[in-house]
Amino acid sequence: MMSKSRMDAPRVKQAVVKTALVAVLSVSAGACVQLSAPEKPIEINLNINIRQEVLVRLEKDVQELVDKNPGVF
Amino acid sequence: MKSRIKIAAVIGIVLAAVAGDGVAAQTDASASLRASGSVGEQYDGYLGVVGDANANIRDQVSAINIKRRAFYTELARQRGATIQEVAVATACDLLRRKVGQGDYYKLPDGEWRKRDGDISLPSYCG
Predict the structure, then answer these.
(1) What does the alpha-carbon distance between residue B94 and residue B96 come to, in Å, rounded to a whole number?
(2) Three-state DSSP string of chain A
(3) CB atoms near residue B82 (< 10 Å)
(4) Contact B86 A58 (CB under 8 A)
(5) Which of A1, B16, B92, B118 is least crowded, fewest Cβ atoms below 10 Å from its Cβ?
(6) pLDDT of B102-124, one tens digit each?
(7) pLDDT tens, B63-84?
(8) Does the predicted interface ipTM exceed a cut of 0.95?
(9) Which residues of B touch A52 (CB under 8 A)?
């Protein structure tokens, strides 16, 4: 049994336009956007926050810490 | 009476030997892990696992890192430094003196490297 088609002339035109629009947008979007991942992951040290003079001051202390605690260091 | 003393002495010697073995095994834990090829020294002052490693290795690494952090915390408190500063300073020393040829280490760029010759230390190590 054939029902009355919902695809009359104006609707067909709408459908064609919509399809064309989607097609155009897809192609243009595909052509314009290019993402490439960096070759090597970048390590961002968000929380390395040290004072040079403190490291200098600690030098002997940490040597002692290491020498006195074999196994841990 | 004499034989009892002898027996006690023998037992005492055996216990001392066993205890000594236990201590000796513990004192090389970090060095053993570094030499295993599964564990490396990190620029942040802690041991890290290189690639896949079994649960036993991971547990040992965790246990050592917890101890290290405790030492860092205490020294930081004593010296008016941050825990991170103590940890990083220690890492510089470990990279210099403890990472052997063929051992793994990690610098701030995040890559595991195998020591072959000198280590190129970060500039803040001095």
Answers:
(1) 5
(2) CCCCCCCCHHHHHHHHHHHHHHHHHHHHHHHHCCCCCCCCCCCCCCCCCCCHHHHHHHHHHHHHHHHHCCCCC
(3) 15
(4) yes
(5) A1
(6) 999 999 999 999 999 999 999 99
(7) 999 999 999 999 999 999 999 9
(8) no
(9) 124, 126
